Each structure stands twice: as structure tokens, then as C-alpha cells.
Amino acid sequence: MNIVIIDVTNSIPCWVIPLIVGLICTIFGYLLGRLAGQKNDPSNDLDLWKRKNASLKADLDACRSELSIVSSATAAASTTASITSSFSSDASDTSPKASLIPFDAAAAKAAFGKAIKENDLTIIEGIGPKIKELFHNFEIKTWASLADTSVETCQEVLDSGGKRFQIHHPKNWPLQAQLATEGKWYELKKWQDEHEYGKD
């Protein structure tokens, strides 16, 4: 009878090595899963989007409040303009037009960021103190009178000052003056920002 003796120590590496490798892979997989889970944590993204949404809502509310202020000022100015236009159609002299639409210094300051004096011709892009004096010499002293002045007359005023005023282009000065007369300060500022030195 032959007795077979199994040496357990020789068979240990056969089942221990896969066990150790499996255990290491399990731990490694668990750690990778935790690390990947932290990167894709939806709560972090949700907080970020909530903050962005709150910021956009605040900007929207600020724009709406500014728009309502501008709309109410524009509506008031246009209502006044429509009322006064019926009266001004009967008048033979158009120079008092500026007095028919009330000047709103606060609205002008809000649009331009500086104090504006009523009927100051230098608010017109391209008109400085010297050109303002030339217009005053021709009894054009208000925005309304400048708005009613033709481009040809504006050029005559410039020509009266000599050659140094020939570089100026008055073709849009009556338009700008009309916007000032009507109290359309934001439209005037936007127009001036879009047209360099009143040219175009």
C-alpha cells in the first residue's frame, strides 16, 4: 500500500497569489471609484449653476429696473412732445419749441454721466466752445433752433469762422439737436458712441 503525502507548503503559492492579486485589484478599484465619484459629484456642479443663475437673475432685475426708469422718462417726454406738437403747429415761430418740452437735467446726467446745462450746444458731438459762439452770432442759441437749422445753414455758420472750421462736418448736428430737444438722452449718447466725432 502506498501512502501519498501531500505537501501543503508546496501548494500555497498556487492559491495565495491569486488571492493577493484579487485583494489588491479590489482595493485599487475601490479607490479609483471613490476618486472618480468625487470628480463627477453633481452637487458641486449644482451649486455652481445655482450661483450663476442667481447672478444672472440679479443682472436681469437691474436691467429691468433701469429699463423701466428709461421707459417712463421716454414715455413722459413723448407724451409731452405729442401734446406740445399740436400747439406748436399753430405757431409761426419755431424757436420756442425748447420751452415746450421740459428739460430733465437728471435724465441727461444719467445718460451722459455728467451735468448738462439746458440748451448747451456743446453737448452736440463736433461742437465746441468756439463753434457754439459762431452759432450764437447767428442767433442759434437753443437745441430747438439748431434742430430747425438746415445743414447748409450750419455750414454757412462754420464758413463764417474761417478756414480753421472747414474740417468740421455739421450734417448730423440738427439730428443730434432734435434728440436733445426731445429729451432722448440715451438715444443721443448711443448715437454719439456709434459715430466718431459726429461724422457718418
Distance between the termini: 119 Å
For the largest beta-sheet, the strand count, sense and barrel status come to: none
In terms of structural class, how would the helical and strand content be classed? mainly alpha
**Which ranges are low-confidence, i.e. pLDDT below 50, for 5 or more consecutive residues?**
86-99
Order of helices and strands: HHHHHHHHH
Q: Could you estimate the helical fraction of the residues in percent?
A: 55-70%
Net shape? rod-shaped
Radius of gyration of CA atoms, rounded to a whole number: 39 Å
Task: Please state the average pLDDT score.
Answer: 79
Beta-strand percent range: under 5%
Number of helices: 9
Instruction: Please provide the count of β strands.
Output: 0
Summarize the helices and strands and which ones pair or pack.
Layout: H1 8-39, H2 42-88, H3 97-100, H4 105-112, H5 129-137, H6 143-147, H7 151-160, H8 173-181, H9 185-194
Protein described:
The protein is mainly alpha-helical and about 200 residues long. It has a domain at about 95-200. The chain is about 65% helix and about 0% strand. It is built from 9 helices and no strands. It has helices at about 10-40, 40-90, 95-100, 105-110, 130-135, 145, 150-160, 175-180, 185-195. Residues about 85-100 have low confidence and may be disordered.
